[in-house]
Amino acid sequence: ISFNAIDSALSSLKNCQSYINSGMDVATQVALDLVQSFNDEEDVNNMEKVMLEYATMDRELNHYIKAFEETINQVKREKPENFPDLENLAQEKFLEMESKNSDLDFEKNEKYMYFKDQLKEMKKQYLGNDTIEQIDEDIAVTRSQMNFICPITQMTMKRPVRNKVCGHSYEEDAILEMIQTQKQKKKKVRCPKMGCSHVDVKGSDLVPDEALKRVIDSQNKQ
């Protein structure tokens, strides 16, 4: 039995995943643009719906690929005398996976969760400061600028990354250098933000803090 054609089809499906990922990246940038330019909440909500559709497509595609891979592996393992209907077998597996779908699945989608996190931060920076500014504009500016300072370099961040575990941000080069130095000493890295109890900062937990970078860039232009 030759599986070349099937392997080629699976390879094409996996390429589709890269298009979904690109679409999710674009949707994230558009949503952040909308918040930054104070567009209607409805426009931002529409981008959230777009992201949810992308995440749903990604889950469906993952199930389809997994169903076909499991079917092929099963046939290779069992080596039946009569060649089975691969499409039907794969379809059964696919429908079984889809029947177990839950909204919790989206929490495993890194790009969707990154979108939710960055959108929340962006809204906090651009839409959540009104009450603070009404109390005291100077205090508001000072608090905002304090968030721009890297706890390691004590300088305004240029490429901030956010720790998914504790939520603190650092200058990318500074935190990666700290992780590398401690790794050579076989030691863990404690979050350098004062008062944080997180004691094991890992490079895999860091994501670009696009929301914070936009705010810093905007402040610098002023």
Automatic annotation (TrEMBL):
Keyword Signal: no
InterPro entries: Nse2(Mms21), Ubox_domain, Znf_MIZ, Znf_RING/FYVE/PHD
Domain of life: Eukaryota
Pfam families noted in UniProt: zf-Nse (PF11789)
Subcellular location: Nucleus
The entry's keywords: Ligase, Metal-binding, Nucleus, Transferase, Ubl conjugation pathway, Zinc, Zinc-finger
A GO term from the CC aspect: Smc5-Smc6 complex
Domain SP-RING-type: 135-221
Gene Ontology terms for molecular function: ligase activity; SUMO ligase activity; ubiquitin-protein transferase activity; zinc ion binding
UniProt keyword Iron-sulfur present: no
Name used for this protein in its record: E3 SUMO-protein ligase NSE2
